[in-house]
Amino acid sequence: MKDLLRLRTSLTEEIERVLNEQIKMEADASAMYLSMSAWCDRNGFDFSAGYFKEQSDEEREHMLRLFKYVSDMGGRAVSPDVTNIQIEFESLRSVFEQALQQEIAVTQSFNRMADRCQKSKDYVTFTFLQWFLKEQIEEEYVARRALELFEVIGEEGTGLYEIDKRVPKIKYEDTY
Ligand SMILES: [Fe+2]
Ligand SMILES: [Fe+2]
């Protein structure tokens, strides 16, 4: 039965598994950003709340893009469990620190996946992953810039208010 099922797809079991793991990672990232948005909202950081809500929507889009690929290829896409999402954060700065760490972890995960695709000579999936690898340049850039605002502006006085206002204005220019 297992072999019969495999005839329906050129995805190996290993590649299908790592794609599903990535689907879960994107779903977790989406939920985490939504949680960060709620924390910002509760603490008076309106602009950051809007920024994280947008990030959350983007991560869901990433999840659906991977989901569609697995389905389109005849594989079994698994709707992931999302549990134990952090609710409280220490400070606005710690929220942005965690956001950057999350993006770096996602980049590393896609790198590992690309590596596995090459090792198993799955160039179809390897090509599909290029969009995500490129997307991570922007994702990391924006998260890093947001965190740098804490150094550039400083948190004293109305600093946090200014940082919050600046967050949605961060833009990545793809000029190369
Ligand atoms: Fe993502
Ligand atoms: Fe992201």
Describe the structure using short key phrases:
176 residues, mainly alpha, 6 helices, 0% strand, elongated, binds fe (ii) ion
Write a structural description.
Helix 2 (13-42) packs antiparallel against helix 3 (46-72), helix 2 packs antiparallel against helix 4 and helix 4 (92-119) packs antiparallel against helix 5 (123-152). It contains 6 helices and no strands. The mean pLDDT is 96. Helix content is 73%, strand content 0%. The chain starts with a helix and ends in a 10-residue tail after the last helix. The chain has helices at residues 2-6, 13-42, 46-72, 92-119, 123-152, 159-166. It is mainly α and 176 residues long. It binds fe (ii) ion (2 copies). Residues 29, 59, 103, 106, 139 line the site of one fe (ii) ion.
What share of residues is helical? Answer: over 70%
Approximate shape: elongated
Let me know the number of strands. 0
- SS element count, helices: 6
In this entry the ligands are: fe (ii) ion
For the record, give the distance between the C-alpha atoms at the N and C termini, rounded to a whole number. 49 Å
Task: Kindly report the oligomeric state of this protein.
Answer: single chain
Proportion of residues in extended strands: under 5%
Mean pLDDT: 96
The secondary structure category is: mainly alpha
Radius of gyration: 18 Å
Order of helices and strands: HHHHHH
Low-confidence stretches: none
Largest sheet: none
Catalytic activity: 4 Fe(2+) + O2 + 6 H2O = 4 iron(III) oxide-hydroxide + 12 H(+)
Subcellular location: Cytoplasm
Protein name: Ferritin
Domain Ferritin-like diiron: 9-154
